[in-house]
Specification:
Blueprint (H helix, E strand, L loop, with lengths): L2 H8 L4 H14 L1 H6 L2 H4 L5 E3 L12 H8 L12 E3 L20 E3 L4 E3 L8 H5 L6 H29 L1 H20 L4 H27 L4 H28 L3 H9 L1 H8 L7 H6 L3 H14 L9 H7 L18 H25 L9 H25 L2 H21 L5 H29 L5 H22 L9 H16 L15 H4 L1
Antiparallel strand pairs: 1-4, 2-3
Helix pairs in contact: 2-9, 2-10, 2-12, 7-8, 7-9, 7-20, 8-9, 8-11, 8-12, 9-10, 9-20, 10-17, 10-19, 16-18, 16-19, 16-20, 16-21, 17-18, 17-19, 18-19, 18-21, 19-20
GO molecular function: organic anion transmembrane transporter activity; prostaglandin transmembrane transporter activity
Pfam families: MFS_1
InterPro entries: MFS, MFS_dom, MFS_trans_sf
Length: about 525
């Protein structure tokens, strides 16, 4: 007897599974509030060089002081990173006579003055992460995703070794500790370290939630469970926009998005360990207890199964055999799956975070952009629920990723003044990008056998977080060519989408238990 047959006897999608999924979904809301927090945490308001000795300009207005002290851009705005070495009083007579001589300008030497109308405080204003220090501002997101990358490797292995639930609780507990330490940071170095450690901790949450839910659900409802879990990411996306709108100080914003992890820890005590994992690892007594509880809650009170029957379902291991990340590449079919899935995950995350962290690039208010980007994800997920069951996982994965790249590429060609058209294309691209992300989570959890599923998710999550870590840094390429970041996101999305055609189809296929089921 396979575990899938056992699920049919106890009802593979009854009250027991629905309760588990709802608790896991509430926990998932925490993730986007941290993963996309950089948009508001490190927002850079308009700024200009601080002007020394302003008391000397007693007869001039603030606007006139700026006029003679700060050079203007061609569009009339004041430059952010330069000031005149000496006041240019002739500009009071004709402000259009901007000097062409760069020798009379200099970098900001006395700090910066920031516009606080939108943000009370961000890490940019706290530690002057602008101009020459702009790279450090973008690196904050990279540090976080480096942490997520390391966490994917660590928690992928540990959750296969010690169980899903205990590692999920550990990752949430560490998320609370490091999230609060981030909020109390007194230097940029402290913030970089604590955000990296927060990324490590939250990676466990991201990695474990979906497989833990999926391993309790039957084949028929597996897609629905995956889409439902994913929808709560979008809800978290929208809640981040609301939270950031209400909390304009970066430290209190960190507290606000970290606090819900405590509630998740309390709720998770009602979620059992994966019976599928327990059986695969020979812990049949615990699995037996959880299965009987599931049957009772689902109204199958006549259900009985012996411990001996469960032992026969245990995946046989050869003497001394253990599974690790190396096991993903030992056999030919698994090797091909792992290489292709890694490329796909990199492309999905790279393009998703490239779009998600460019909220001001489409002419919309950043809070509204964040909210709309969250809203568009929900219909995208619902459409994917239909598509992955109609045309299959492979076609859905490939085409959503390719169309994401084409939308990014289209916005390179559309002129900046066409704000409405660019915004519509961007929202469509975000929808396709989220559809690709939704599919890849579901698809990957079906590609790997139970004995290696978390190792497989850990490896692919590592590749995704590598893409997420590089995505913010690509924005710095606009110094080379203004459109180079978008060209990069477009090219990676299209190429990785094409690789998805090489993966096997998993529609209506039983979840594999051992490596022999794959090979």
């Amino acid at each position: 007897m396979k575990f899938e047959d056992l699920l049919l006897e106890i009802d593979g999608f009854g009250r027991f599974q629905i309760l588990i999924l709802l608790i896991l979904c509430l926990t998932r809301i925490n993730l986007p509030m941290h993963f996309l927090l950089h948009n508001f945490l490190a927002a850079t308001p308009s700024h200009h060089c601080a002007i020394p000795h302003q008391e000397a300009f007693v007869n001039l207005t603030t606007e006139e002081i700026l006029l003679i002290s700060i050079p203007r851009e061609p569009d009339g705005t004041f430059r952010s990173c330069e000031m005149f070495s000496q006041p240019q009083y002739h500009l009071l007579l004709n402000s259009s006579l901007q000097p062409d001589n760069n020798s009379i300008t200099q970098d900001c030497r006395y700090g910066w003055v920031y516009d606080h109308s939108q943000f009370t405080s961000t890490i940019s204003t706290q530690w002057d992460l602008v101009c020459e220090q702009r790279g450090l501002n973008q690196a904050t997101a990279t540090f976080f995703f480096i942490g997520v990358t390391m966490g994917a490797v660590v928690f992928g292995y540990l959750s296969d070794r010690f169980g899903r639930k205990i590692m999920l609780l550990l990752s949430l507990g560490c998320s609370v500790i490091f999230g609060m330490l981030s909020a109390g940071s007194v230097s940029y170095s402290m913030l970089a370290i604590t955000r990296t450690l927060t990324g490590v901790a939250l990676s466990g949450v991201s990695l474990i939630i979906l497989p833990l839910g999926m391993e309790w659900v039957d084949i028929e409802h597996r897609t629905f469970a995956g889409i439902l879990t994913s929808i709560f990411w979008s809800i978290g996306n929208m809640l981040l926009a609301l939270t950031a709108y209400l909390v304009r100080d970066w430290q209190w914003l960190l507290v606000a998005v970290t606090g819900p992890c405590l509630l998740s820890i309390v709720c998770l005590w009602w979620v059992p360990e994966s019976a599928r994992w327990l059986i695969a690892n020979g812990k049949v007594k615990q699995a037996h207890k959880h299965l009987l509880k599931c049957a009772r809650m689902n109204g199958k009170k006549d259900f009985t199964i012996s411990l001996e029957a469960l032992r026969r379902m245990t995946t046989e291991k050869k003497p001394g055999e253990s599974f690790s990340y190396i096991s993903l590449f030992r056999t030919p079919v698994l090797r091909k799956i792992s290489l292709c899935a890694g490329i796909v995950w990199f492309g999905v995350a790279f393009s998703y975070y490239g779009m998600s962290m460019n909220l001001t690039g489409f002419g919309l208010n950043m809070y509204f952009s964040q909210f709309v980007f969250g809203v568009i994800e929900i219909p995208a997920k619902i459409v994917m629920y239909v598509l992955v069951n109609r045309i299959g996982r492979r076609q859905s994965q490939a085409w959503t990723l390719i169309l994401t790249g084409l939308c990014i590429g289209a916005n390179i060609l559309i002129p900046k003044p066409f704000t409405s058209v660019r915004s519509v294309i961007a929202v469509m691209g975000k929808g396709f990008s989220e559809a690709a992300f939704t599919t890849v989570f579901l698809y990957t959890s079906e590609l790997y056998p139970t004995v290696l599923r978390q190792n497989g998710m850990g490896y692919t999550s590592f590749m995704a977080r590598l893409g997420g870590a590089l995505a913010p840094l690509v924005f710095l390429l606009d110094d080379v060519w203004r459109s180079l970041p978008e060209v990069t996101y477009c090219g990676v999305a299209v190429c990785s989408g094409s690789v998805a055609f090489l993966l096997p189809e998993t529609l209506n296929v039983r979840l594999p238990e051992g490596i022999e089921d794959i090979e």
